[in-house]
Design goal:
The chain is of the alpha/beta class. It is built from 11 helices and 8 strands. The protein has helices at 3-13, 84-87, 101-119, 127-130, 154-159, 166-177, 213-230, 240-247, 253-256, 280-285, 290-305; strands at residues 21-25, 28-32, 138-139, 145-149, 186-189, 234-238, 261-263, 272-277. 39% of the residues are buried. The structure holds iron/sulfur cluster. Iron/sulfur cluster is lined by residues 119, 122-125, 127-128, 134, 191-193, 215, 218-219.
């Protein structure tokens, strides 16, 4: 057992349901209040400190994200403690049965068919010509919450997994602060190939850009099919581009973040709850935004606890 884990366990022992407390969390302090013990049985951090040092958002994130279960949909976790056991499924209220293994297998198979048979070596837009790896998505096919970003960056293009750079490490930290991780959620992007400012310089870092409407249009149909298969209770969009694409709006991210909307995404299906928030990369540039994201994550936690 690592020293860090030993220290954490000792601190947790000192905290009872009746008492508030403080535990070390990746080199920082998280304040816990006893009444915040949620339906998952874990204390919920009550302070923005759980998202990291606002003055240094990249601090101490090196340990985050090392327990990812695999790339794309091939490695499907059957979580020993799936949150859907306690929190219900989309279209149901209260608690609901654990998704059966056959349900998880069906979703896994459907995602694999979408990836291999429908998307394949897609060249429906110009981004397909310059990608190194197509970044389909990663996570639990029976996830109750999906996080959607705008598109792969430099690292994602090489690893074939969304949110693996510094912004991804911060996303892992945000997830951990509300007792989620990549085994419980599903993470995807609006486009599945790397948009570059200068496609002639694929080895240059800092060459990322948001996808254009022409690039998003063909790829959005793939994302909608992923959403239809996974059927999450809520979708959290990360950043302005993802919010605008999924909400089909021109409103700015500062105006729409934190506001829950019902959005028709899949034809013939009930609307999905969509919660826009800032992209983790924006938090790295402007740590003051962490407070807003923390408010959004508390709202997400509340919705998942209903
Ligand atoms: S971004 Fe989407 S539509 Fe464009 S080539 Fe890649 S998979 Fe195909």
């Amino acid at each position: 057992m690592s020293e860090e884990l030993k220290t954490l366990l000792e601190s947790l022992k000192a905290i009872t349901l009746e008492n508030d407390g403080e535990i070390p969390y990746w080199g920082e302090k998280i304040h816990l209040k006893a009444p915040a013990v949620g339906s998952l049985g874990f204390p919920i951090p009550n302070s923005v400190e759980g998202l990291g040092n606002p003055k240094d958002p990249t601090a101490d994130t090196s340990s985050i994200g090392k327990s990812r279960f695999g790339k794309e949909v091939g490695a499907v976790p059957v979580c020993s403690r799936n949150p859907s056991t306690e929190l219900g499924r989309r279209g149901q209220t209260g608690t609901a049965p654990h998704p059966s293994n056959s349900e998880i297998q069906d979703k896994t198979s459907a995602l694999e068919i979408l990836r291999k048979n429908e998307i394949g070596d897609c060249l429906r837009c110009a981004l397909g010509q310059t990608r190194k790896k197509l970044v389909f998505g990663v996570g639990n096919p029976a996830a109750r919450v999906m996080f959607v970003g705008e598109g792969p960056g430099f690292e994602e293009d090489r690893q074939g997994e969304p949110f693996v750079g510094k912004a991804g490490q911060l996303l892992d930290k945000i997830l951990a602060a509300i007792q989620l991780d990549r085994q419980k959620v599903y993470i995807a992007n609006i486009v599945k190939c790397h948009p570059m400012v200068d496609p002639k310089k694929p080895e240059m870092r800092g060459n990322d850009r948001p996808p254009t409407p022409e690039e998003m249009a063909p790829c959005l149909s793939f994302l909608k099919k992923q959403i239809d298969i996974i059927n999450p209770v809520i979708i959290v969009t990360l950043g302005a581009t993802a919010a605008k694409a999924l909400l089909n709006t021109f409103e700015g991210i500062t105006r729409i973040r934190g506001k829950l909307r019902d959005v028709n995404i899949v034809d013939g299906k009930p609307p999905y709850k969509v919660l826009p928030t800032y992209h983790p990369a924006a938090l790295l540039r402007n740590p003051d935004l962490k407070k807003d994201v923390w408010e959004d994550m508390k709202l997400l936690r509340q919705i998942l606890s209903q």
